[in-house]
Amino acid sequence: MSRWRADFPGLDQVINGKELIYLDNAATTQKPEAVLAAVDYAQRIDCSNVHRGVHALSLRATASFEEARRKMARFINASSSEEVIFVRGATEAINLVAHSWGDTNIKRGDKVLVTELDHHSNIVPWQLVCERVGAQVEWVPVLMNGTLDLKVAHEILSSGEVKIFAFGHVSNALGTINPVQEMVAMAHEFGALALVDGAQASPHIAIDVEDLGADFYALSGHKMYGPSGIGVLWGKIEHLAGMPPWQGGGDMIRSVSIEGTTFAEPPFRFEAGTPNVAGAIGLGAASVFIEEAGLSAIAEHEALLVNKAAESLAEIKGVRLMGEKSKRVGAVSFVIDGVHPHDVGTLLDQEGIAVRTGHHCAQPLMDRLGIPATVRASFGLYNTLEEIDSLQAGVEKVVGVFA
Amino acid sequence: MSGVEDLYQEMILDHYKSPRNFGKLENPDSEIEGRNPLCGDHLVVQMRFEKDQIAEVAFEGDGCAISKASASVMTETIRGMTRGEFQEVFAVFQALVTGVESDSVLELGKLAAFGGVAAFPARVKCAVLAWHTAKAALEGHKGSISTEEKV
Ligand SMILES: Cc1ncc(COP(=O)(O)O)c(C=O)c1O
After folding, report:
1. Distances from the Cα of A285 to the Cαs of A281, B15, B84, in angstroms?
2. pLDDT number for residue B151
3. Measured in angstroms, how far is the CA atom of residue A335 from the centroid of ligand 1?
4. Which of B8, B13, B40 minimises the CB distance to A372?
5. Which of residues 309-348 of A touch B (CB under 8 A)?
6. Ligand 1: lining residues by beta carbon, under 6 Å
7. Residues B120-136: what's their mean pLDDT?
8. pLDDT band per the 50, 70, 90 thresholds, residue B2
9. Per-domain residue ranges for chain B?
10. Is pLDDT at B1 greater than 50 in this prediction?
11. Where are the domains of chain A?
12. Exposed, middle or buried, A49 (CB in 10 Å: 0-12/13-18/19+)?
C-alpha cells in the first residue's frame, strides 16, 4: 500500500469492471484533496481578480496568488520569487523564452542546440524562432541505450555559435534522467545559455535551480499533482530583467499612454492578462503536498515501483525495455515483439490499467530507436507494488492474445 | 464489459500476423501513403486499374492489429470492384465500425469481423486508415494523406 493513496479521490473508481490502476502519471497526475480544496476555495470563496482591486476580496486573492509564487520559488530553490513566472505549462514556458529571449538574442547564422530525446514542446519553439531569425537548429543525437551523445554536444557547442542549449531534465518517453549539471556547465563553457525542461522531473526529484546552474527551468503543474493550465517558468533575474514582453495586455505594464507604454518588472512583465489565479494557488498547494510527503520518501517509493516494473516486465517473453536501466525516474517504456503498442493499450485498458502508448511527442527519438511507438507505464507516489503485479499479469495476457 | 474478444477476433489476429496482398505491385497506376500521426501508423496502398475496375491492390506498412488486418481484408474485398462499388462498400464499412445503423443490403462477408471496433471509439481511425488511403488513391490523389487532415 502507499500511505499517500487515500489523499487522491480520483484513484477510487472502477474502469471496465476493474479497479482503476493509473499508470499514466507522466501524461498527467491525479490531484490530492489538498489541491482540490485550494482550487475550490479560490473559486468559491476568494473569487476575485488579482493585483487590481482595493477591496478586501481582491486583496485576499492577490495575497494567495503571490503566496503561491513564493511557494513555487521555495519548491525549486529560486533565490527570489521575482524569478517565478506563472504560465500555462512547460510548453508556454519554453515558448516564452523562445520568443522573448530568442527573438532578441538569436541572430542570423547563430545556432540553437536541442536533443533527439526531447518532447516536441522543447523542439518546435526553437525551430520556429530559428525560422524567424534565420538561425540553425542543431541536434544532440541519442545513443541506442537512450542516453544523449554528449561528445557531439561538446563538439557543436565548441563552435561558439550556439546561443542556447535546450534539453530535458527527465525524458518523458524513456523515463531516464540526464546529467543536467554537466550539460549546463558545457553550455556555459562555450558562452551558451541553458534551458532545462523539468516537466518530468518536478514530481519525482528535488529541484534546486541554483545548484543545477541553469538559466531557465520550465515545469507543468498538472504533472506534479497540481491543476492543468498552470506552470512555471523560472529564469535568472539578470536574464529576465533584460527581456522584452512577449504578449501585451493588462497587468504587464507600468504605464500606457498614446506616446507609448512602459513595462512592469519581472515577473509581471511576462504575465499579460488575468492569470489562472485558482490554478496558481492549486499549484502552490501541490508543491506543499510534495514537500510534506518528502521528495526523498517519494523517490525511495518510486524507485521500488520502477525497479519492480522493469524486472517483472523483462521476465515476459518478447518484452524489450527501452532506455538505460540505472537512469530511470518514474517510468518504464517498453515494446513487445509482434504486438503494436496501441493494441497493448487497448487490452490493458480492459483490465482497468491506464498506460500511455504512442510516440509520446518524441518522434525524433522513435525514429532514432527505429520503432513507431512504445508502451509507457509511469508512476506516482500513490502507486503500489500490487499494481505492478497487475501490470505484469496484464502484459502477460496481452502476449497470450497475440501468441 | 464490452468484449475485447469481439475486437481481437481470430480472423483479425490472423490477418495481422499474415497480411494478404502485402508488398508491392509491379506496375501500379496509383500509389498513396496513409498516416495516422497520433499513433505513428503508416501504410502505402498501391492499385492497378483495368478500365474502371481495381485489377490489383496491395499494401505495405506498419501499424496496430486493427489497422493492418483492416488493410489486409480490404485488399481481398475490393479487388475486382469498380470505383462505385468501392464507395458503396466503404460507406457500409464505415457505418459498421462507427456503430451507425445502415440499411444497406450489401453482404459484408469478412468485413463483419470489424463490428467490434464500434465499442472502441479510440480505434475507429485504425480501422478506416487503409480505406481512406485507398479512396484517395482511387480519386487520383498523390503523395500522402493523414487521419488528422482533410484530404
Ligand atoms: C518532458 C515534457 N516537456 C514538456 C511537456 C509539455 O507539457 P504541457 O503540455 O503541460 O505544456 C511534457 C508533457 O507531456 C513533457 O513530458
Report:
1. 6, 52, 61
2. 42
3. 22
4. B40
5. 338-343, 346-347
6. A 89-91, 119, 121-122, 168, 172, 197, 199-200, 220, 222, 361
7. 94
8. low
9. 3-142
10. no
11. 2-30+294-402, 35-291
12. middle
A80: left (phi over 0), alpha (psi -120 to 50) or beta: beta
The CATH number of the domain covering residues in A2-30+294-402: 3.90.1150.10
Confidence at residue A347, expressed as pLDDT on a 0 to 100 scale: 96
Contacts of A261 (CB under 8 A, 6+ apart): A248, A253, A254, A255
In three-state secondary structure terms, B40 is coil
The pTM (predicted TM-score) of the whole model is 0.93
Q: Which CATH architecture has domain B3-142?
A: Alpha-Beta Complex (3.90)
Residue B12 and residue A393: Cα distance in Å, rounded?
23
pLDDT digits (tens, 9 = 90+) for A128-175: 999 999 999 999 999 989 999 999 999 999 999 999 999 999 999 999
pLDDT tier for residue B149 given thresholds of 50, 70 and 90: low
In sign, the C-alpha dihedral spanning A116, A122, A123, A124 is: positive
Interatomic CA distance for residues A251 and A179, integer angstroms: 38
**What is the Cα–Cα distance from B33 to B142, expressed in whole angstroms?**
8
The reply to whether omega before A9 is within 30° of 0 (cis) is no
Decide if A47 is catalytic.
no
Residue from A14, A336, A340, A357 to probe the interface with B (highest B Cβ count within 10 Å): A340
Atom of ligand 1 lying closest to residue A197 CA? 3
Q: Which of A37, A361, A371, A385 is catalytic?
A: A361
Q: Does A373 touch chain B (CB under 8 A)?
A: yes
Architecture of domain A35-291: 3-Layer(aba) Sandwich (3.40)
In Å, how far from its chain's centre is CA A156?
26
**DSSP one-letter code for B100:** -
ipTM for the assembly: 0.88
Three-class SS of chain A: CCCCHHHCHHHCCEECCEECEECECCCCCCCCHHHHHHHHHHHHCCCCCCCCCCCHHHHHHHHHHHHHHHHHHHHCCCCCHHHEEEECCHHHHHHHHHHHHHHHHCCCCCEEEEECCCCHHHCHHHHHHHHHHCCEEEEECECCCCCECHHHHHHHHCCCCEEEEEEECECCCCCEECCHHHHHHHHHHCCCEEEEECCCCCCCCCCCHHHHCCCEEEEEHHHCCCCCCCEEEEECHHHHCCCCCCCCCCCCEEEEECCEEEECCCCHHHCCCCCCHHHHHHHHHHHHHHHHHCHHHHHHHHHHHHHHHHHHHHCCCCEEEECCHHHECCEEEEEECCECHHHHHHHHHHCCEECEEECCCCHHHHHHHCCCCEEEEECCCCCCHHHHHHHHHHHHHHHHHHC
Q: Give me the mean pLDDT over the A190-219 stretch.
A: 98
**Which H or E run includes B54?**
strand B53-62
Whether residue A187 is predicted with pLDDT greater than 80 in this model: the reply is yes
